[in-house]
Amino acid sequence: MRLGGRSLSRATVLLVASLLSHKLLAEELTIPGSGNPQYVLTILAEAFNKEQVVHNVSIPPSTGTAGAVRDVEAGTASLGRVGRKLRPEELARGLIYLPIGRDPVVFVAGAGTTIAGLTAREAADVYAGKITNWQDLGGKPGPIRAIGREDTDASLMAIARSLKEFHGLALGDHVKVVHLDLQLIELLDRFPGSLGFLNRSALSVAKTKLVHLALNGVEATPDKVESGQYPLWLELGLIYRLGNLSPAGKAFIGFIHAPENTPIRTGLGLLVGPAPSQVR
What's the whole-model pTM score? Predict the structure, then answer.
């Protein structure tokens, strides 16, 4: 082959062809959805992007699990991220769920908190407005700035599912309800006497040293989740529509579940189950 009067070697031609082929196959994969798995998937995406050069995965700000379902069903996203398993009606519409791992949900306090834990009854009484001062929980005197979430929040649903004290609980007027994980974290950072709840990995972006509170004397660790001693957790996952998973989506899922990459997830505090048998 000649180009501009110069002969190109066969190796050069093959290299150029390979680069062009990779360029044509390359895909920018954006995974919208829940804030619960956002931090974990950001770390996984960074590792995936470093390992290969064909595809690039990005994790945008949260639009909630509802946003993931909407975008995947509409075909505007090949993969979505969720903080819960899919409902029967969502599965019936052809959506597929792939678990990433179980993440403990913790009651978490601002950096000025001096207690190490609380009971389920105490937590419920705080959110009901019956306990309003840290002194009543054995801590340094000061008002408790309780931060809550909407009823459809995955972390709140995990709490209501497992703690009878929260069944049918009406939040007190003093509770500040926010709709995004980052809003909750910002308030926890801003107010040293605040109290909230969220899955543990999502709290990794906090700027202050938040206090993860033990529940009924049990720490929120993966081994305690696995043994059933710690009852609060949610299942982080990815969703896609049957027959609509892109090559980049398949490659990223394969990367996540490769045995040699499992330490990425366990290192972030997730309880990891077996890899899916197949991705359709």
Answer: 0.86
